Every structure is written in C-alpha cells, then in structure tokens.
Amino acid sequence: MQLCFATNNAHKLAEIKALLGKTFALKTLKEIGCEEELPETTDTIEGNSRQKAEYVWEHFGVDCFADDSGLEITALNGAPGVHSAYYGGSRDFQGNIARVLEELKSESDRSARFKTVITLVVQGKVYQFEGIITGQLLKEQRGSQGFGYDPIFVPDGYERTFAEMSIEEKGKISHRSRAFAQLVDFLQTYSGE
Ligand code: ITT
Predict the structure, then answer these.
(1) SUPFAM superfamilies attached here (predicted)?
(2) Which of 62, 91, 139, 181 sits at 20 to 30 Å (Cα–Cα) from 36?
C-alpha cells in the first residue's frame, strides 16, 4: 500500500520515518506534486488534521494521512493547543517557547500534554487516531534534539526533556508515535471494505 504523509514539517516526517516498518511505503507531499501550504483554518486539532488530509485527497486523489498536533497547558486552559505552531506570532519555535515561559512565569502548576490527531483518508473514507502524552514544563530549555516545545517538555516518569532524547527514544513514548501505532494497527487489518 502506498500512502502520502500530508505534512510540510520535516521534523514530523523524520519522526514518522523512524517509526516506519515495512508495513507501507510513504510518499511525501513533494512526491505527489503538492508544493503548497495545507489549509488549517478550523478551531480544533481534530478539525485541522481532517482538513489537511481531505485537501490532499480532494486535490491529488492520493490516499494519505495528516498529523495535527499541539501542546495543551493546564494552567492556560489548554492553550496554545490548536495555535501551537504560531503562538509566539510566527512559526519560530523560540518565539513560541518564549511566550509560553512568560505566561507560566508565576504558575506553580506546570502540567501539560502533547496531543496528536492523525487523520487517514483511504479512497475518500476518513478515520482518526489520537495520541496523548502528559508531562511537566520546565522554566528553561534543555537539549537540542527534536523541535517545537521539546526543549521545555519532560514526559511524566522521565527526567529528560524530549529535546534531550534521541528520535528513537522520543518515538517510544510520544503523542505522535501513539497515534501512529493505532494507524499502523488499523492498516494491518484494513481490507478496503
Ligand atoms: P504540518 O501542518 O505541515 O504537518 P505544522 O508544523 O504546521 O506541520 P501543526 O499545525 O500540527 O504542524 O503544528 C504543531 C505545532 O505544535 C508545531 O509547530 C510545534 O510547535 C508543536 N509540536 C507538535 N508536535 C510537537 C512535538 O512532537 N514536539 C514539540 N512540539 C510539537
């Protein structure tokens, strides 16, 4: 089975490629001729995930899956959530982290969770899979791997941030890998019905 991973985020692509077995071959957006930004105009992670996958199916007729993810911070009532990519005003990861650290400056509750919703579209049918990991946010950054908010997020049960973990270590526990594992399970039993 050939599937396109509908993302323009090179870090997400690298993480999913590191998790891929021989279950299916993965095509990139570039390989199917999609050079544009994907639409993300709903107000939920589920909605944006679906919107990206359906856009690729409708415009390119290729079976695909999309990942929409976000950091949900308890003390900020779930923000930045669906706005995670632009929270600091642009796509800049450092600006995003700076805003979060500023808003949490006097907060003792540092709990947060990463959430990923993967939407699969096969032959026009839509399926969704969710992955969550809970953790704590540090007051300063640690580590240089990963992307986004990884340098301030320590998963519960661990002492290192995601940015201090290799791609394989993060891939054993992350929100993305949890959602992706469900997608793989689904595809292994998918009969096309
Ligand atoms: P695509 O829509 O092209 O897939 P994107 O970067 O726009 O890529 P999202 O809309 O899902 O992806 O934005 C999610 C943002 O949440 C992302 O830019 C990061 O800031 C953050 N994020 C998502 N997953 C993360 C992870 O595993 N570690 C750290 N931050 C993450």
Answers:
(1) ITPase-like
(2) 181
